[in-house]
């Protein structure tokens, strides 16, 4: 084939196989290609193969290989790889179905719905499926009344067993409903599979459920196409696996099931599988995803269904248990050097148990294992066996018992008998047979070898002179007696001490000059045979073990004497001539010599046969001139062959035996069919080209119309925007005027506040003067009694003045506080009232401090206020905030220490303090640092805890309290002053009997600032999570197009390290959520916040997935919907697994639904029943975007779509926003009251001071008391 620049080709690279490439330069003797890895390679033209492009394949792959333009090896492999990446495991090659093992469960492909879809559908109309092949065979059997065969082939682990079960499942679906007693025949057919798998399947290196025997399944149908019976035949059970396995393989499944059966295992004195020699040679006892105990009960149920009685079931499991106990019997040297005996008490226990289970004599069992009887003319000679021979004899007995159990009528015959029991006299000859690749059809010995000769004679066919390729020398090398390879192998197996080395040595000595046999270079025992098809190398390591098949007379005598009818039935007594020899040898190789001869006879003759009617019907189209008038079919057949100049055929009496003639005729027919196909393709291509041109022209017209409409719409939009801007300009001018007037009013209010401040200072000075006068009066009272009376009168008068001043002072403080709060909030400056002009003192901004108390108050009241000059207090709080103090018993240490310090320093009762501002500023500084994102969960726990402590322990009802008025006559001046000094709390309305603390305005403002801080931390943490999960969602929105692993992006969540890459994109999201939950738990974030975070995070996931489906058409497909649905099931499982504490009422609202018969759905059904939560605009968007890329099913009807489009156009004129997308929720989903009700109370008394802060003097009180109280 000639290549030119730009041609798409395949090129082979070492280590990579076939890779995609494009011809970059074509030289005379070489081609330069550019590979997909952007490397230039120079190769010979014959080393290249042409390649189909993804555009040629219509999506990158085809469901039938015959649709490939270039049907070559890389093209086939590439097509299978592309389909496998989309979970399309089935692909046609004409009528052949290729299945690639997915190594995972795909239940949606094999349910009853799928079987109903393929029922009665012609092969190739739907996607490739094993059900389609089964249905085609079934329909051909019913329509043609002829038996059909399905051949399932493949290497180990390819899925032959599972495919066979699926075919049987489909056949029982379409041909079921015929019942036998209370058990339907289809049930018996299906349940025969788990029964045979339990006793004949085992784990190998490549397959967890590998069939270790050949199986021929025949399912029989009656005239109406219903299952009427079945027969199952088995071949070549791997007997050696019973006694010898290698790691990581396993023995047959039934042994492990019996050991895990619980009470049944105890009944047979069985323990764990690891305690038995036949099972513990490998350390693999369990299979992933399989429970041995459950499988045991499934096996027993299958026995019930196929009709095995409970008594025989017990006998079967007793026999299995006896085999396991038999393997644990060990031998020690006896009295003589070549004798043996039971080793110890443990071995004796297993021997006694095995004898009890076999129901035979224990002494006879010992004798059978440790000796051998040889019958001669002179009498019986008993030969003792050494330890090695006794162990080999034990293993031979175990293999023989298991093989009889498997092959004899109690297992396989039970299945065949039970399934055949439903056959009646009305049974037709139609049957459907399933053939596995790994068995040999032994019926060919009799049928082909005898019937071929008889048929040729009856048909008067001269076949003795037919030439065929003579491979006789190879056959003689393999099977000729007495020195063929099989004969030498049988001879070696008859001697116990023979090994594969001695066998190989003898074989090389006898065939050293044979041209067909060679000795390999790097092995002394391997050999190579040159067959007709090529050379094959054989390894002799296990030749002897695989070929041995002894029948020991002592074994048969032992078990035929069993008191158990089941066991004795397995071993019928041998005839007298068999007893004379202890061994009756039968090799595996000797059983199949007849097969080779039968095949040779068949190939040497005329394997292709047609009746005259069939031949004429098939090939008469080649010679239409011979069909004129009446004709004889035999004469017409000869005329066709002579006209086509074909020979090497013979006309029989009843049927024509054809070979080369048939092949040539078939080839010519295929050529005609190919030409017809090419003509059809050319015509279809021409029609498609014409249609594409028309479609392009229509699209151009539509685009021009759309551009015109868009231009008109743009002009109208510009006009509307100008009107809107003019309106906005007028509004802005009015707002500027209002702001100017508000500014003037604010300046006047500030002047009034300044006057109030000056007035308070003057009152404070007067109060100080009065106190001095009282002191002078008290000193002069001791001089004279007369002066004292005068002074008392003056004092009473002064006390009254003092009360009035105190009352005025309180009123001024209240008015000052109201004015300051109004100035701080200023909700509407138009509604502000002018304060009395007599208050000329200015009030400072409320964010830093509040107005001070009058200076004339006593020193006792001033001592209540926290002293802000103590810089040490600020340093302690700063360290509590900057350092990670951790948690004690789930309680944040930093929050508890800060609250205890503020409570002890009486900061909450202070009317003027900046300590709260320092706390808020320090927290904000920490949240602005480099590691701020990592500390967000930690500070969410601390700030919320501190806020809840303030919410529960502070009260603000004493903020506007006034002092109580009392009569001053009884106590006198001195008593009243002392009373005032000792009870300063009553001046601010605080009652010592209440457990809560009276909070002043700075404390209330601090609580509001702390609330804003909590909301800020929560919002920042939520936004960070959305940013980190967005890349993971982007790769999950659309199904991957290849199996090539994409490197996972590391995600860094708050306080969490980089995540490792995962093979599954959805698993990355699950890992991200698990890591998030671990971080929140480590920082003891309250479950209230966790629920809110998870709810908003999943809401974000829903919105992103839904919007992506509506924006990207490649995402809005059937296959992608299945992919997204599978991923959402992982998230739903994660929600279910999380405890109720953290996932209460968190659901995934976004779900995907598969709707069948979409064209029959009306608009009302879609809006009310199917999609009630979506708007018409969103439903219309989905219907216009969706396409079925898998089954090519039709969508919603055009009438419904047109109705929705009309509704959308009408709504467009009324709606403010025409978007069909969902908006993300950025609100804070809680309030301060929610926190106080949802978060439990915190007992901060037992939180100790960290050692790093114990050296500060200001916090020594925390070391002296458990529950700090405010200082007095």
TrEMBL record:
GO MF, any single term: calmodulin binding
PROSITE patterns from the UniProt entry: DILUTE, MYOSIN_MOTOR, SH3_LIKE
Record's keyword terms, sorted: Actin-binding, ATP-binding, Calmodulin-binding, Coiled coil, Motor protein, Myosin, Nucleotide-binding, Repeat
Key word ATP-binding present: yes
GO biological process: actin filament organization; actin filament-based movement
Any one GO cellular component localisation term in the record: cytoplasm
CDD domains referenced in this protein's UniProt entry, alphabetically: MyosinXI_CBD
Residue span of region Disordered: 836-868
Keyword Metal-binding: no
InterPro entries recorded: Dilute_dom, Kinesin_motor_dom_sf, Myosin_head_motor_dom-like, MyosinXI_CBD, P-loop_NTPase, SH3_Myosin
Residues binding ATP, per UniProt: 154-161
Coiled coil: 655-682, 746-822
Residues of the Myosin N-terminal SH3-like domain: 4-53
Dilute domain sequence ranges: 917-1210
Matching Pfam families: DIL, Myosin_head
Myosin motor domain span: 60-598
Family according to the record: Belongs to the TRAFAC class myosin-kinesin ATPase superfamily. Myosin family.
Name assigned to this protein: Myosin-15
Species in which this protein is naturally found: Dichanthelium oligosanthes
Native organism taxonomy: Eukaryota, Viridiplantae, Streptophyta, Embryophyta, Tracheophyta
């Amino acid at each position: 084939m000639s290549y030119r620049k730009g041609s798409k080709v395949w090129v082979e690279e070492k280590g990579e196989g076939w890779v995609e490439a494009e011809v970059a330069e074509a030289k005379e003797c070489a081609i330069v290609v550019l590979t997909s890895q952007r490397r230039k390679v120079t190769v010979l033209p014959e080393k290249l193969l042409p390649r189909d492009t993804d555009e040629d394949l219509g999506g990158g792959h085809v469901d039938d290989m015959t649709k490939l333009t270039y049907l070559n090896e890389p093209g086939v492999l590439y097509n299978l790889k592309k389909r496998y990446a989309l979970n399309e495991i089935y692909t046609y090659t004409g009528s052949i179905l290729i299945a690639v093992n997915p190594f995972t469960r795909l239940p949606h492909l094999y349910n009853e719905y799928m079987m109903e879809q393929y029922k009665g559908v012609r092969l190739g109309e739907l996607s490739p499926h094993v059900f389609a092949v089964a249905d085609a065979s079934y329909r051909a059997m019913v329509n043609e009344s002829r038996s059909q065969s399905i051949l399932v082939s493949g290497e180990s682990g390819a899925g032959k067993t599972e495919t066979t079960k699926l075919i049987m499942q489909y056949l029982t679906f379409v041909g079921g409903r015929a019942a036998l007693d209370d058990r339907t025949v289809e049930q018996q057919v299906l349940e025969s599979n788990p029964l045979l798998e339990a006793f004949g399947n085992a784990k190998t290196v490549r397959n967890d459920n590998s069939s270790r025997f050949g199986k021929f399944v025949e399912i029989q149908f009656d005239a109406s196409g219903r299952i009427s019976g079945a027969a199952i035949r088995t071949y070549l059970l791997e007997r050696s696996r019973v006694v010898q396995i290698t790691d990581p393989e396993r023995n047959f499944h039934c042994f492990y099931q019996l050991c895990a059966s619980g009470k049944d295992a105890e009944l047979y004195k069985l323990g764990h599988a690891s305690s038995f020699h036949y099972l513990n040679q490998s350390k693999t006892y369990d299979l992933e995803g399989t429970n041995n105990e459950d499988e045991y009960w499934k096996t027993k149920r299958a026995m019930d269904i196929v009709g095995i009685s409970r008594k025989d079931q017990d006998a079967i499991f007793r026999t299995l248990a006896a085999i396991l106990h038999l393997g644990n019997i060990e031998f020690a040297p006896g009295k003589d050097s070549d004798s043996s005996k039971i080793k110890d008490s443990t071995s004796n226990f297993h021997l006694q148990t095995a004898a009890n289970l076999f129901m035979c004599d224990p002494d006879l069992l010992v004798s059978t294992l440790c000796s051998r009887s040889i019958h001669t003319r002179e009498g019986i000679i008993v030969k003792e066996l050494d330890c090695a021979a006794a162990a080999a004899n034990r293993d031979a007995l175990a293999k023989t018992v298991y093989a009889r159990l498997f092959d004899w009528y109690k297992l396989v015959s039970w299945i065949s008998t039970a399934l055949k029991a439903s056959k009646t006299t009305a049974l037709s000859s139609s049957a459907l047979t399933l053939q596995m690749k790994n068995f040999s059809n032994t019926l060919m010995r009799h049928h082909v070898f005898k019937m071929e000769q008889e048929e040729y004679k009856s048909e008067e066919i001269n076949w003795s002179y037919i030439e065929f390729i003579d491979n006789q020398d190879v056959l003689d090398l393999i099977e000729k007696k007495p020195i063929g390879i099989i004969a030498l192998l049988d001879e070696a197996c008859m001697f116990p001490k023979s090994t594969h080395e001695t066998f190989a040595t003898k074989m090389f000595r006898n065939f050293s000059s044979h041209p067909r046999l060679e000795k390999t270079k790097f092995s002394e025992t391997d050999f190579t045979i040159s067959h007709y098809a090529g050379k094959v190398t054989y390894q002799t390591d296990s030749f002897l073990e695989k070929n041995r098949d002894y029948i020991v007379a002592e074994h048969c005598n032992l078990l035929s004497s069993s008191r158990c009818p089941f066991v004795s039935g397995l071993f019928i007594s041998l005839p007298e001539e068999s007893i004379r020899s202890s061994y009756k040898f039968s090799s595996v190789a000797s059983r199949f010599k007849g097969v080779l001869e039968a095949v040779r006879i068949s190939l040497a003759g005329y394997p292709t046969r047609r009746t005259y009617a069939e031949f004429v019907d098939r090939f008469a189209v080649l010679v239409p001139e011979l069909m004129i008038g009446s004709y004889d079919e035999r004469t017409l057949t000869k005329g066709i062959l002579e006209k086509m100049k074909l020979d090497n055929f013979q006309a029989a009496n009843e049927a024509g035996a054809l070979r080369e003639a048939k092949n040539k005729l078939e080839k010519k027919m295929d050529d005609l069919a190919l030409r017809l196909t090419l003509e059809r393709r050319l015509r279809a291509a021409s029609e498609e080209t014409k249609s594409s041109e028309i479609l392009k022209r229509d699209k151009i017209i539509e685009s021009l119309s759309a551009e015109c409409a868009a231009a008109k719409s743009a002009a109208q939009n510009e006009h509307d925007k100008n009107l809107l801007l003019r309106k906005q300009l007028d509004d802005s001018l009015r707002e500027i005027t209002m702001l100017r007037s508000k500014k003037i009013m604010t300046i006047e209010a500030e002047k009034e506040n300044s006057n109030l401040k000056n007035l308070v200072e003057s009152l404070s000075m007067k109060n100080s003067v009065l106190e001095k006068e009282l002191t002078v009066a008290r000193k002069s009272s001791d001089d004279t009694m007369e002066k004292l009376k005068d002074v008392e009168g003056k004092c009473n008068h002064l006390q009254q003045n003092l009360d009035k001043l105190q009352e005025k002072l309180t009123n001024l403080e209240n008015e000052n506080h109201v004015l300051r709060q109004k100035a701080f909030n200023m909700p509407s400056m138009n509604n502000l009232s002018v304060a009395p002009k007599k208050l000329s003192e200015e009030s400072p901004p409320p964010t830093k401090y509040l107005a001070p108390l009058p200076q004339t108050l006593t020193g006792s009241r001033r001592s209540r206020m926290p002293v802000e000059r103590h810089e040490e207090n600020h340093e302690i709080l700063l360290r509590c905030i900057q350092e990670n103090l951790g948690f004690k018993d789930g309680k944040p240490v930093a929050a508890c220490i800060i609250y205890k310090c503020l409570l002890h320093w009486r900061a909450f009762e202070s009317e003027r303090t900046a300590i709260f501002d320092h706390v808020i500023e320090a927290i904000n500084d920490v949240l602005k640092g480099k590691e701020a994102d990592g500390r967000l969960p930690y500070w969410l726990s601390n700030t919320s805890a501190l806020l809840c402590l303030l919410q529960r322990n502070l009260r603000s009802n004493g903020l506007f309290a006034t002092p109580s008025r009392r009569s001053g006559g009884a106590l006198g001046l001195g008593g009243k002053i002392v009373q005032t000094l000792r009870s300063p709390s009553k001046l601010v309305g605080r009652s010592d009997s209440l457990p809560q603390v009276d909070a002043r305005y700075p404390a209330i403002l601090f609580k509001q600032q702390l609330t804003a801080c909590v909301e800020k931390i929560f919002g920042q943490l939520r936004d960070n999570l959305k940013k980190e999960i967005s890349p993971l969602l982007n790769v999950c929105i659309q199904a991957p197009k290849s199996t090539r692993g994409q490197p996972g992006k590391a995600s860094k969540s708050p306080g969490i390290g980089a995540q490792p890459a995962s093979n599954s994109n959805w698993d990355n999201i699950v890992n991200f959520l698990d890591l998030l939950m671990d971080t929140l738990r480590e920082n003891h974030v309250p479950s209230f916040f966790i629920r809110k975070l998870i709810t908003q995070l999943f809401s974000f996931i829903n919105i992103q997935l839904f919007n992506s489906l509506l924006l990207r058409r490649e995402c809005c497909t059937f296959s992608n919907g299945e992919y997204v649905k599978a991923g959402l099931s992982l998230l739903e499982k994660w929600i279910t697994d999380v405890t109720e504490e953290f996932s209460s009422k968190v659901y995934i609202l976004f779900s995907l639904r598969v709707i069948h018969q979409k064209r029959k759905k009306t608009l009302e059904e879609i809006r009310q029943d199917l999609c009630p939560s979506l708007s018409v605009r969103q439903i219309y968007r989905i219907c216009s975007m969706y396409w079925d890329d898998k089954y090519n099913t039709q969508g919603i009807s055009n009438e419904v779509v047109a109705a929705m489009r009309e509704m959308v156009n009408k709504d467009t004129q009324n709606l403010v926003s025409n978007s069909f997308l969902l908006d993300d929720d950025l609100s804070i989903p809680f309030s301060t009251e929610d926190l106080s009700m949802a978060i439990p109370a915190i007992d901060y008394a037992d939180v100790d001071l960290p050692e790093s802060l114990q050296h500060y003097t200001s916090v020594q009180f925390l070391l002296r008391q458990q529950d700090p109280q405010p200082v007095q």
